Amino acid sequence: MTLEMHTAPDSASLPSGRPSQAPGPLEAGDPAHYLNRELSWLEFNARVLAEAASPDVPLYERLKFLSIFFSNLDEFFMVRVAGLQAQIHRTISEIAADGMTPSEQLVAISQRAHALVESAYKTWNADIVPSLHRAGVRIVRPEELEPAELAALDERFRTDIFPILTPLAIDPGHPFPHLRNKSINLGIMFSREHEGEEPGFGVIQVPPMLSRLMRVKVEGSRRAFVLLEDVIARHVKEFFPVSRLRGTYPFRVTRNWDLEIDEEEGEDLLETIQAELRRRDRGNAVRVEIGVGGGVNTSVQRLCRALGIDSSTDVYRVTGPLSIADLVAVVGDDERRELRDEPFTPQMPAPFRDVEDLFAVIRERDVLLHHPYESFDPVVEFVSRAADDPNVLAIKQTLYRTGGDSPIVKALARAAENGKQVTAIVELKARFDEASNIQWARTLEQSGAQVIYGLLGLKTHVKALLVVRREKDKLRRYVHLSTGNYNPTTARLYTDVGLFTANREIGEDVTSLFNLLTGYSAPPKWNRLVVAPLGLHESILGLIAREAEHARAGRKAEIVAQMNALVDVDVIDALYAASQAGVDIRLFVRGVCCLRPGIPGLSERIHVRALIDRFLEHKRVFRFANGGSEELYMSSADWMPRNFHRRVEVLVPLLDAAVKARAEDMLATLASDTAKTWELNADGSYTRVPLPAGAPLVRSQYRFIELARERVKQADSLSRGGRFHIFQLAHGPDEDSRRKNGKKKKGGATHS
Q: What is the arithmetic mean of pLDDT over 506-522?
């Protein structure tokens, strides 16, 4: 990656899309106060690309980050760019908070995205490919093979590939075919028989059901591959034998992939979504990528006309293979440790090690789990044991993205078959997971579970699990609330927190939450939880305003918040007002951030950082100093309009003193990171956080790995010594000393 990508560009090419201005007095809605959401997201993806280009990252992990960069970009075009284009086609002009029209945003997006794609291919060609070659991994073209190996490859083509292919000549009698989203195709130019006729054009679709990577033997390499499209291109003459070929090139089409669902018109939401999924692949084209080949210049305009896209902004000519995200498979089964991150197994949380009665542990004290450093297994085991426990009467759970073959779905189905009252709130509209969710929703229904598809017009994004158990002639509620999905796979890849509690007030609130989701019955008041869209927005604004009042009164005032995205204009304005009142604000926003920090007179007390590392930062944790009586919260919601107004979300207060201390330590450790953290500048660019002179390099995610291992060692030591203490095992080695010393230690803040 080039240096320009890391430093603030000049005002003509700011990520905001507009020249930087020094904002005057706070005026709500002033476009100069906000960064553009779409361009901010592209800067997030630039930070992902920076990991792919970093020499400090192991080679195979760099290839992984490059794959993530391209996968992210696909989704961005399929949803965000497609949405902007749809506004233009429908003559709708929604002005962004920063004042940009849809057309202006599309131009700015194209400029930045083209620059990023160019940088990505420079990283691929100049860095990743030579490094793979040195590691004995090669992707070669067919003509680079030895004669015997090439002959064997040609034979494979004739027997395994040729019968599947269908060449399509484009002429008045053969219209341009519909090409599937993200499919790779070969464009073929050939001369007509008569002089002066427009050159002919044909298409061969690369079969998606075949492996794109064909294994071959290359001397001196551990493993070598040729690309399926290159093999097909080698044999193009066999499909057009009477034509004079002028060139062949690969291209790839990206389409609008968002669903358009009118929930009020559809009588059955499940059937409506199934119908939309069948139509999804016919969405409008939003981008075409063109690979290296001959005949491109003479046919690109024709291709663009056929696809209905703008050749000046929506065509991406690349200098390497299309869909690099597919190529991470070249190292899929190569386990050489020096080429990958240090192996790490999530640790079993101390309170749940060798414990028969999980319910007793949760009755004793709230337990906060930190994934992926601590295992997700206790959550799966909790549902599984509840399914088989004769004293459990009911299980209620929200399911957003559980993944395929989910052990949690199996446990819920078993619980229903065991005669328990099982209610699953399944979000069918979880983008790109719709088909999977429909499949296991039907599985749950067949087992006898009550499956509810959420509230009309709202996505159910809250992560909640309620178990009702009979104990000594009374009912007790056990609750798990989380910032992440009930998905064992992503729980090993994303950083999230989950809270187990038997707190009576929270249990009552979670019961009310499920009643809201199934029967539209909200309680007169909530005990502890704050629920969107029934007041979460107002509560966040109130918490921020309260800090401003403390600051004006000379009391301790500080906000520390970690989230994935900060977009909501009202919240941004409230943070600006708090900064002007004297509140110190530290924000850790992994992705999109529309707030401009560090502007004199507006946001000089606000600092925004973003961390990109081995695991995807996904948790939402918030701390408010509150004049010295600090409050900490976790949430399923980012600070975005959709989370406040169009989703069911919860804000959960952390009530247990040790749980609060641990959450505060998480934020402190995150703040101490000097290895993988970026600072947001007022103009929307990001720069790496510099390492202070003489200070140790701190990598927060690896510090969390160390802490998880230390807790396991301490648990084993306590167990061997016969001094089992649930408090210590639940919250690690530092909390007891904290209580004895009467002060809090900023865990991890000073450790490398």
A: 93
Which residues make up the CATH 1.20.58.310 domain(s) of the chain? 3-121
Pairing of strands 392-399, 463-471: antiparallel
Which residue among the candidates 33, 370, 371, 461 is catalytic per the annotation? 461
Fold of 534-741: Endonuclease; Chain A (3.30.870)
**Residue 317 has which token pair?**
């000519």
Whether 419 shows a pLDDT value over 50: the answer reads yes
Q: What percent of the chain has pLDDT over 70?
A: 84
> What are the tens digits of pLDDT across the range 50-60?
999 999 999 99
The number of angstroms, rounded, from the C-alpha of 28 to the middle of its chain's C-alpha atoms is 30
Q: Which CATH code fits 140-273+283-337?
A: 3.30.1840.10
Complete DSSP assignment for 660-725 = HHHHHHHHHHHHT--SSEEEE-TTS-EEEPPPPTTPPP--HHHHHHHHHHHHHHHHHHHHHTT---
295 sits in the region (left: phi over 0; alpha: psi -120 to 50; else beta) called left
* In the chain, ranges of CATH 3.30.870.10 domains: 376-528, 534-741
- Given this model, what pLDDT does residue 28 score? 64
Instruction: Using CB atoms within 10 Å of the CB of residue 199, give its burial: 0 to 12 exposed, 13 to 18 middle, 19+ buried.
Output: middle
For 376-528, CATH number out of 3.30.360.10, 3.30.870.10, 3.90.1150.180, 3.40.50.2000 equals 3.30.870.10
CB 622 within 8 A of CB 561: yes
Asked if residues 64 and 71 have their Cβ atoms less than 8 Å apart, the reply is no
Of 4-13, 103-112, 679-688, the one with minimum mean pLDDT is 4-13
**Model confidence over 350-390: pLDDT tens digits?**
899 888 899 999 999 999 999 999 999 999 999 999 999 99
- The structure's pTM equals 0.88
Show Cβ contacts of residue 722 under 8 Å, excluding neighbours closer than 6 positions: none
Tell the CATH topology of 3-121. Answer: Methane Monooxygenase Hydroxylase; Chain G, domain 1 (1.20.58)
Nearest to 228 by CA among 294, 161, 179, 132: 161
Distance, CA of 190 to chain centre: 43
Among 314, 257, 301, CA closest to 83: 257
- Is residue 461 part of the annotated active site? The answer reads yes
The 8 Å CB, 24+ separation contacts for 113-117 are 113/42, 113/73, 113/316, 114/316, 115/5, 116/5, 116/42, 116/45, 116/46, 116/49, 116/69, 116/73, 117/73, 117/316, 117/318
Residue type, 278: R
Residues 6+ apart with CB under 8 A from 352: 358, 361, 367, 377, 378, 381
Instruction: State the DSSP string of 613-669.
Output: SSSEE---EEEE-GGGS-EEEEES--BSHHHHHSEEEEEEE--SHHHHHHHHHHHHH
**pLDDT score of 24:** 46
HSE-up of residue 28 (Cα within 13 Å, Cβ side): 8
